[in-house]
Design brief:
Keywords: Coiled coil, Cytoplasm, Exocytosis, Neurotransmitter transport, Synapse, Transport. Residues 79-88 have a biased composition (Low complexity). Binds to the SNARE core complex containing SNAP25, VAMP2 and STX1A. It is found in: Cytoplasm, Cytosol; Perikaryon; Presynapse. It is built from 5 helices and no strands. By secondary structure, it is mainly α. Helix content is 66%, strand content 0%. Residues 1-5 have low confidence and may be disordered. The chain is rod-shaped. The protein has a domain at 26-71.
Length: 131
């Protein structure tokens, strides 16, 4: 009688200490079901937040339309398009715009800065500088 009790007690003690446990034949199936439930919960959570973000974006767009505000991406796209339009055909940097009448035609008389300033001075001062 003592021998039977000690064998049973030793077997239970081994389980408690992390020894050989009885394998559940359905353990793999239960684990797969648990993983599937976790995946499903994650998908539902993502769908919920995607829906909330879409609602927020609709509200944001309404505010942008009301006040004439552009999205950051739209501003960057417009700036990039303007740069590309200016740099079309150029392999390096964008060409600088030359105002009409500058550089192409030769001027008969080139004025210095001093002459330009003198032109706007009062009469007596103009006479002093011209001499």
């Amino acid at each position: 009688l003592c021998l039977v009790l000690s064998l049973g007690a030793t077997k239970d003690m081994g389980k408690m200490l992390g020894g050989d446990e009885e394998k559940d034949p359905d353990a793999a199936k239960k684990e797969e079901e648990r993983q599937e439930a976790l995946r499903q919960e994650e998908e539902e959570r993502k769908a919920k937040y995607a829906k909330m973000e879409a609602e927020r974006e609709v509200m944001r767009q309404g505010i942008r339309d009301k006040y004439g505000i552009k999205k950051k991406e739209e501003k960057e796209a417009e700036a990039q398009a303007a740069l590309e339009a200016n740099a079309e055909g150029s392999l390096t940097r964008p060409k600088k715009a030359i105002p009409p009448g500058c550089g192409d035609e030769e001027e008969e008389e080139e004025e210095s800065i001093l002459d330009t300033v003198i032109k706007y001075l009062p009469g007596p001062l103009q006479d002093m500088f011209k001499k």
